[in-house]
Design a protein that fits this description.
Blueprint: E1 3-8, H1 16-21, E2 23-28, H2 35-41, E3 47-50, H3 58-62, E4 69-72, H4 82-87, E5 92-93, H5 100-115, H6 118-126, E6 150-154, H7 158-169, E7 173-177, E8 188-189, H8 192-198, E9 201-204, H9 218-223, E10 229-232, H10 241-249, E11 255-258, H11 271-274, E12 278-280, H12 289-308
Parallel strand pairs: 1-2, 1-3, 3-4, 4-5, 6-7, 6-9, 7-8, 9-10, 10-11, 11-12
Helix pairs in contact: 5-7
Length: about 325
C-alpha cells in the first residue's frame, strides 16, 4: 500500500477517508513535529501532507528518496524548498482560491478593531478599569473614523481586491500599488511611495519572497502619516517588526493590526507586545470552518493526484 506521511493530525476527521486508501503515518497529534522526528519518518514516504508550520527543506527531501508529491494545507509555500523539489521532479500542491474572502474578512475586522480600539476596550473592561467615575468621557478610547478614510493596499491579488470591496461599502477611498499594472474597479493605482504617504489605513497583501521581505521597513514607515494604521494579514517578514515597534513607540504611527509575524509564535519579549496601539492575532486569516475544511480537501486532492501520477489540480508553478 502507498505510504503517506501527514506531519500532523487535521480536525473534523479529515484524514479518515485517506487512511482507508493509503498507509497513513501521522507524525504529530499536537502541532508541528520536531524536524528531526519528521526526517526519521519520511524514509519510505511516497506522499507528504504538510502545513505551513512544517519546514520542508533540502535535509528533509534528502531523507525521503521515494517521495513523489508534496501537498500543503496553505496557499503560501515559503516553508517548502520548491526549487529543490522541482529539481527532483516532485510536484508541490497548495490551496489557492479558497481563502480570499475569509482572509479579507479578518483584514477588515483588524482595520475596524484598530480604528475603534476594540482590543483596548475589551482589556479595560476585563481589568476592572471601567469605573463609575469614568463610565463615559468624550475622550475615552477615541479613534479615527473608517468611513470616508483612505485605504491603501500593497498588492492587488484576490485578498486585496476582496478587502477593497468591503472598503467601498464603508465609503472609503481605495488606493493601491501593485508590482504589475492591474485595473480594478473602484481602486486608484499609484506609485508605492504615493500609497504609503496617502493612506489612513495601509493593508499589506503581497506574497513573501526575496524581493518583498523587508518591503516595509523604517524608511517606508517614515513616509506614512502619523495618524495611519498598518494592517498585515499577508506574511510575516514583509514588514520590519522592529522598525514598526519603534515607529509606534515614537508616536509616528497611530496603530498596527497584525495577524502574521516573522517568527510564529512570537517570543515573549517581542517589542510589538509592549508597543502602543497594537492589535495582534495568531495567524487566523483563513480560520473559518468552511474555508479550512476546503483547504484540507484541496490538499488531499493534490496529494492523491500526485500519487496517481496525474497533474495536481492546484500545483505550485512559480
Amino acid at each position: 500500500m502507498t505510504r503517506v506521511v501527514a506531519t500532523q493530525t487535521l480536525p473534523w476527521g479529515a484524514l479518515d477517508d485517506l487512511a482507508n486508501r493509503v498507509e497513513l503515518d501521522v507524525v504529530s497529534e499536537t502541532g508541528a513535529p520536531d524536524p528531526e522526528v519528521l526526517r526519521g519518518r519520511v524514509a519510505e514516504a511516497e506522499g507528504l501532507l504538510c502545513l505551513l508550520t512544517d519546514r520542508i527543506d533540502t535535509a528533509l527531501l534528502d531523507a525521503a528518496p521515494a517521495l513523489r508529491v508534496i501537498s500543503t494545507v496553505s496557499v503560501g509555500v515559503d516553508h517548502i524548498d520548491v526549487h529543490t523539489a522541482r529539481a527532483r521532479a516532485i510536484p508541490v500542491g497548495h490551496t489557492p482560491g479558497v481563502l480570499a474572502e475569509t482572509t479579507a474578512d479578518l483584514a477588515f475586522a483588524l482595520l475596524l478593531a484598530a480604528a475603534r480600539r476594540v482590543a483596548e476596550g475589551d482589556r479595560l473592561v476585563r481589568a476592572g478599569d471601567w469605573r463609575p467615575e469614568r463610565v463615559w468621557a468624550p475622550d475615552m478610547l477615541v479613534g479615527p473614523d473608517v468611513h470616508g478614510a483612505t485605504l491603501g493596499l500593497i498588492g492587488l491579488g484576490a485578498i486585496a481586491r476582496a478587502v477593497a470591496r468591503r472598503a467601498r461599502g464603508f465609503g472609503m477611498r481605495v488606493i493601491a500599488w501593485n508590482r504589475t499594472p492591474r485595473a480594478v474597479e473602484g481602486v486608484e493605482c499609484h506609485p508605492f511611495e504615493t500609497v504609503l504617504e496617502g493612506s489612513d489605513f495601509l493593508s499589506v497583501h503581497v506574497a513573501r519572497t526575496a524581493e518583498t521581505t523587508g518591503l516595509i521597513a523604517a524608511a517606508e514607515l517614515a513616509r506614512m502619516p502619523r495618524h495611519a494604521t498598518l494592517i498585515n494579514t499577508a506574511r510575516g517578514g514583509i514588514v520590519d517588526e522592529d522598525a514598526l515597534a519603534a515607529a509606534l513607540e515614537a508616536g509616528h504611527l497611530a496603530g498596527a493590526a497584525l495577524d502574521v509575524f516573522d517568527e510564529e509564535p512570537m517570543a515573549p519579549d517581542h517589542p510589538l507586545l509592549a508597543a502602543p496601539g497594537t492589535t495582534l492575532t495568531p495567524h487566523i486569516g483563513s480560520a473559518s470552518r468552511a474555508t479550512r475544511g476546503r483547504m484540507i480537501a484541496l490538499a488531499i486532492e493534490n496529494l492523491e493526484a500526485g500519487l496517481r501520477g496525474d497533474p495536481l489540480p492546484h500545483a505550485v508553478t512559480d
